[in-house]
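Our preliminary data section would be incomplete without showing what the modeling component actually yields. Below, a chain of 156 amino acids is followed by its predicted structure, encoded as tokens that our downstream tools consume directly.
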Amino acid sequence: MAKLARWQPITEVERWFDRFDRLFDRMISRFFRDLERDFWGLDWRWERWVPAMEVSETPDAYIVRVELPGVKTEDIEVTLQDDILTIKGKRERSEERKDETVHFVERAYGEFVRSLRIPTDVKVDAVEASYKDGVLEIRLPKSEESKPRRIEVKAA
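Predicted structure:
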């Protein structure tokens, strides 16, 4: 005997929105890609990869984390110039798929660049970067002057 599943109208609406989003994204990216090629003679990919980034702050440092799954350490470059932190890199396809037909792809490959202006209270000579489990972490230590310090309040 077949089991009955409760109909979830919200789930059905979400599926339609997801389908519409994917269709719209493909349509717009093709339009602009073709427009670039036709008018400027460029073959620029609008489906560029932009890794997710998170910036947080502790009392001692600013911390930048960038999700870079599948990127080799040697393919990551971090530079700091004129208060601009730049992260460059590339993710390449792992292998040729001769016996496979790919039906759906959401992963992006190729080069990426992310830049952000850092606060002026960073000790630039003490910046450190580490890469573990597909996450790049950049620690930007604050200068001593900018760290919070307790000021004693005296009775008058």
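Residues 53-95+108-145 form a domain with the Immunoglobulin-like fold (CATH 2.60.40.790). The radius of gyration is 23 Å. Preliminary results of this kind motivate Aim 1 of the renewal.
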